[in-house]
């Protein structure tokens, strides 16, 4: 029995409904997925319903089909404007009447809101998507009280729980608001809910009586991989270029990083767009549509804002920055492969990102900080573990999984880590946890095992226990690995209520009584990650230096120098030749990415070098690096032009350095870089102030006859007569006039 806004009852006999026929009529499908049919029947009978179904499992159909079948309008609470728009567009495509579905949120103006309300009153609208903030407004509550409501649906229901990964305080008021509007059934749906979150949702919505439909969290078409966060932008560009034309999503921690990464991808020939809450609504909507219509291959989005884009053929999800919880990570990766096809989930992990997320918790209520830290601990454990990632995720959501069924669909199963017999280590760990009365979290336990005398250890007097330092032959990192693996394999459990206190399970107690073999896997080491958070930070060479090619390039340079009667270093300096032996440039575009080579040098001297390298690569069947010097966001050409303009104006070099906030040394280095890449600068006006003409001629003639442009050699030749700075200035003049 259902109640309309005026209190009149409306009865629907579910036996009279041909659900499969309705599914075919409205959605064009011949059969339901999983438990969809049972869920819909339960809702049609007027029962509260709770659905936990992984992303791509078909949650939305569980409330969309009943909306068509029941009298009145269903109210669907959704936290994301993007998700509302996407689902409304999808429903409108199923009908000839656009008013069949509407959304009501802050993106609409007053006129648009009035039109929505008119369509609902006239009975044209079957589904009304509402933001929780809009639902709390008095005028909207009064309006909804006046119309027939079929049921309330809460999408992304994990937002209700403080333990959910995207807690929204306004969600906690939903039950109270529903009761003000109409006493109709509630269906709550989420893709991510641990047992604790599930109970919290039901309790808050006063629907502990709800029938729960819980599907497996296993997405067997997804491949999970975690990489150390080193040269992350280069890795991402290389990864995407190997998958050109495929749809992908990249998640970043901040709006600024979203913009930077999107621009970086664009200038490297990748069709990418940014998407975050700071963009204007119209821009967000346009970017979303372009992604859905395949006018853009990649969307770069903030983790905090989420996406809400229901695109079935997303082939990869990349986390530039790690998520703030395992629930967030699971939901975000779940956007890949929703059509059942291949979905790759690549995340870059650095503990520095965790520290940033911890800083975000500062200033929040103590309980919220404790919850946040516990959620961060779980994502750290997941990132650093060497256990099957699928097993780890499913264990977190309360589901057992045999890692043999992973079928190498995660990096840890595809490339297994070193194994050791761990029975003795597990025995020591369990005995230590018993000695601590099962009252401590992982960090304290690992310190206790390794004999680290922390302040807490002393205050609890745990340092005087006989078991203190029982595992001091190993460090805390090792014991953390043992602890994680013992937890995943069911010997230990974490008490969520007490923010991660570890206790021994029945299986663990049985292990104490009857110890057996326990295979431990060596954990990943993520200590070596990039120190700075900047776009394209270094040009470190992972390739092997090609000494044979280097000798050939030296010979070529020598022959050209004799032919043109100029010193060899004028053509290409040694750092440039060495860089060629890593990068193998065979085109002008390749060559100008070589250290110290600009357009001028490439045009003047590049042809024979490129020809030699191309022939060498071909003869030796060399696979060149695909991630050669990525184009950067820094507008170096603009800085270069500004420097040259200042020199053309004959400003003193000291004044130029001061105006740019640089030291004279840094400015000199910058001018040398400009000149060595093939651009001519005229600093004669400055040299004339610090050098007499005879001295200039003497040093100029030296560089003209020298085999090397090395400043130390020149300093020795002149026996200290000229300072290193003076010699560098003269080298700039020489290179400008002779080489450029």
Question: Could you walk me through the main structural features you see in this protein, from its secondary elements to its overall organization?
Answer:
The protein has 740 residues and is an alpha/beta fold. 47% of the residues lie in helices and 11% in strands. It is globular.
**What's the total helix number?**
34
Unreliable runs: 1-14, 537-542
Assign the CATH class of the largest domain: Alpha Beta
| Main β sheet profile | 7 strands, parallel
Mean pLDDT: 85
Q: How large is the share of residues in beta strands?
A: 5-15%
Radius of gyration based on Cα positions: 33 Å
Give the domain tally. 5
The CATH homologous superfamily of the largest domain is named P-loop containing nucleotide triphosphate hydrolases
Q: How many extended strands? A: 19
Euclidean distance between termini CA atoms:
88 Å
Q: If classified by CATH, what would the architecture of the largest domain be?
A: 3-Layer(aba) Sandwich
General form: globular
The CATH topology of the largest domain corresponds to: Rossmann fold
Structural class: alpha/beta
**What's the arrangement of strands in the largest beta sheet?**
5-6-4-7-8-3-9
Tell me the helix content. Answer: 40-55%
State the main characteristics:
single chain, about 750 residues, alpha/beta, Rossmann fold, Arc Repressor Mutant, subunit A, 5 domains, 6-stranded parallel sheet, 19 strands, about 45% helix, about 10% strand
């Amino acid at each position: 029995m259902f109640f309309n806004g005026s209190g009149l009852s409306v009865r629907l006999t579910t036996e009279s409904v041909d659900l499969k026929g309705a599914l075919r009529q409205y959605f064009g499908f011949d059969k339901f997925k999983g438990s969809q049919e049972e869920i819909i029947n339960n809702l049609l009978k007027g029962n509260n319903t709770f659905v936990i179904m992984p992303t791509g499992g078909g949650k939305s159909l569980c409330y969309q089909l009943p909306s068509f079948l029941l009298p009145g309008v269903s109210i669907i609470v959704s936290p994301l404007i993007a998700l509302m728009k996407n689902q409304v567009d999808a429903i409108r495509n199923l009908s000839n009447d656009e008013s069949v579905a509407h959304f009501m949120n802050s993106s609409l103006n007053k006129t648009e809101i009035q039109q929505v309300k008119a369509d609902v009153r006239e009975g044209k609208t079957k589904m009304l998507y509402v933001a929780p903030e809009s639902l709390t407004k008095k005028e909207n509550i009064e309006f909804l009280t006046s119309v027939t409501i079929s049921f309330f649906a809460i999408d992304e229901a994990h937002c209700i729980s403080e333990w959910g990964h995207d807690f929204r305080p306004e969600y906690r008021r939903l039950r109270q608001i529903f009761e003000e509007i109409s006493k109709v059934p509630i269906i709550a749906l989420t893709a991510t809910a641990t047992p604790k979150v599930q109970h919290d949702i039901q309790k808050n919505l006063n629907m502990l009586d709800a029938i729960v439909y819980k599907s497996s969290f296993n997405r067997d078409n997804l491949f999970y991989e975690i990489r150390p966060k080193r040269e992350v932008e280069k890795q991402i560009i290389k990864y995407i270029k190997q998958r050109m034309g495929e749809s992908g999503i990249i998640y970043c921690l901040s709006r600024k990083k979203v913009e930077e990464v999107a621009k970086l991808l664009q200038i490297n020939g990748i069709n990418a767009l940014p998407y975050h809450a700071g963009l204007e609504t119209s821009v967000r909507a346009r970017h979303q549509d372009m992604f859905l219509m395949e006018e853009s291959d990649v969307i770069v989005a903030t983790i905090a804002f989420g996406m809400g884009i229901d695109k079935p053929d997303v082939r990869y999800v990349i986390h530039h920055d790690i998520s703030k919880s395992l629930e967030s990570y699971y939901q975000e990766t779940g956007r890949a492969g929703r059509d059942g096809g291949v979905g790759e989930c690549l995340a870059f992990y650095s503990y520095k990102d965790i520290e940033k997320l911890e800083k975000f918790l500062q200033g929040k209520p103590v309980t919220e900080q404790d919850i946040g830290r516990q959620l961060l601990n779980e994502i750290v454990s997941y990132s650093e573990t060497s256990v099957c990632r699928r097993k780890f995720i499913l264990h977190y959501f309360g589901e057992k999984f045999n890692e043999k069924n992973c079928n190498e669909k995660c990096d840890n199963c595809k490339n297994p880590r070193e194994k050791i017999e761990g029975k003795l280590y597990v025995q020591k760990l369990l005995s230590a946890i018993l000695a601590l009365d099962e009252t401590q979290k992982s960090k304290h336990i690992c310190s206790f095992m390794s004999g680290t005398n922390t302040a807490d250890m002393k205050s609890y007097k745990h340092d005087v226990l006989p078991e203190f330092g029982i595992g001091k032959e190993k460090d805390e990192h090792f014991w953390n690995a043992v602890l994680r693996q013992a937890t995943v394999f069911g010997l230990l459990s974490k008490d969520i209520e007490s923010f991660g206190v570890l206790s021994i399970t029945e299986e663990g107690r049985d292990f104490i009584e009857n110890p057996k073999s326990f295979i431990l896997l060596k954990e990943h080491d993520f200590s070596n990650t990039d120190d700075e958070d900047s776009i394209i930070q270094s040009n470190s060479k992972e390739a092997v230096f090609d000494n044979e090619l280097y000798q050939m390039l030296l010979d070529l340079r020598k022959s050209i120098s004799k032919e043109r009667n100029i010193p060899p270093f004028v053509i290409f300096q040694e750092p440039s030749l060495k860089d060629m032996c890593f990068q193998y440039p065979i085109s002008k575009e390749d060559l100008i990415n070589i250290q110290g080579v600009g357009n001028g040098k490439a045009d003047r001297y590049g042809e024979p070098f490129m020809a030699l390298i191309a022939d060498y690569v071909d003869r030796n069947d060399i696979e060149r690096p695909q991630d050669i010097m990525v184009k950067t966001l820094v507008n170096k050409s603009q800085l270069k032009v500004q420097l040259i303009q200042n020199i053309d104006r004959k400003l003193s070099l000291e004044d130029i350095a001061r105006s740019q906030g640089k030291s004279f040394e840094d400015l000199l280095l910058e001018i040398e870089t400009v000149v060595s890449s093939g651009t001519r600068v005229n600093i004669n006006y400055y040299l004339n102030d610090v050098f007499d003409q005879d001295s200039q001629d003497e040093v100029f003639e030296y560089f003209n006859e020298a085999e090397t442009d090395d400043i130390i050699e020149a300093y020795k030749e002149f026996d200290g007569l000229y300072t290193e700075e003076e010699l560098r200035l003269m080298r700039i003049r020489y290179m400008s006039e002779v080489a450029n």
